[in-house]
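Lab notebook: predicted structure, single chain.

Context: the supervisor wants predicted structures on file for every construct in the current expression panel, including those that have not yet been purified. This is the next one on the list. No modifications to the sequence; it matches the entry in the shared construct table.
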Amino acid sequence: MANKSYDAIIIGGGPGGYPAAIRLGQLKQSVLVVEKEYMGGVCLNWGCIPSKALIAAANFYEKAQHGAGAMGITFTNVAIDVTKLQAWKQGIVGKLTSGVRTLVKANGGDIVMGTGRLVGPNTVEVTLADGGTERFDAKKGVVIATGATPIQIPGMEPDGDVVITAREAVSLPAVPKTLLIVGGGVIGLELGMVYQKLGAKVIVVELTDQLLPGVDVDLVKVVEKTFVKAGGEVLLKTKAAGLRRSAGSATVTLELPDGSKREVTADKVLMSIGFKPNSRDLGLEKVGVQTDARGHILTNERFATNVPSIYAVGDVSGPPYLAHKATKEGEVCAEIVAGHKAARDWRAMPAAIFTEPEVATVGLSERQVKESGREYKIGKFPFAALGRAMAVSATDGFIKVIVDKKTNEILGMGIVGPEAADLISEGALAIEMAAFAEDVALTVHPHPTLGEGVMEAFKHALGEAIHIANKN
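Prediction complete. Output recorded below exactly as produced.
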């Protein structure tokens, strides 16, 4: 029997794959999505969405306990029911993953659950749950959107019980008394601060010299101060060198910066040292698709690999590992596969970190601009000087803008503070439109809002801020 044929086949139903399928359907292309575990990928099932639901719940819980007293609001007998919390979170996940399936099918796409593997430049073999196999042909192209998976340290592999990854961390049935986090990046800090607010003692071990590596230090320091003030412990330039497991706990041996060793026992150890691309066992070698040293699939500005009929989007094709980046790439790749003129041509790719307070960035960091040798100037506006921030009792942090010293072209923006993840979109739009500091500074922002701080930060860069002193 001949293989069933589609215009396009997508391997992976996550935030890169399913938008590609939907867009292909909109462009009247027949499309098949092959997904081995669950539609929506890591983001919807145990990443972005469930973690943000837990963060929101933890924030409510903390405010009910400590944050509303100054406003004259007091609560008694505040308690957390983790079972109900997890059921609520899972309900959100269920609705979203169901919605993804519905949208793909509503746009004419088919879905097959199984593990896809390339057996030719236009042919995908799918191993089904029952062990059987089916083959499908793609007339116009195969899009690989298989994402990434947590990196493991030999000898400290997760067991899903005491030594866990983010996958288990978003579904814990009880709040751990002590949580040791190996890796002070985005996932480690986001989930660490959730459980800190819910009552856990949290210790973060980071190999580099700062939390949130890659983010400007002045932004990071605000988050670190909040974490430490709430009882958290940060161990920088520290290596997790060994682990012993016992019933209900694990002891991790740490190598400190001075060469000494320390042992820490915790009832949960969260391994959060980064991700690696899911590019193994895809049949890439069989068809000759090239990858880099880390396993990322190499692509050009049109997401094409060195094999003309095979494309790749999202985490599997390289960092930054961001769901919205994967979605954008999936949509554009779909247009390319359908025969449209399109390419990777965006200037701005924002990033958001949902710590306390939130951190968001777009464009170049101050460190990157400094390393480039380009002359620049900084504008900053603290939330403590913003009426709206005072009214909502969220005054930690600031808005920071980086502009070219000679032309005032906007180079980057970083925000640490309330609603940073939402506020950064204005910076993304400004950079995408090649705007200058004057463009934002002269745009009237409504009062009283947090967004006024963006306007004021650009005015500060120009020496025209109204509500803080300008630099000499």
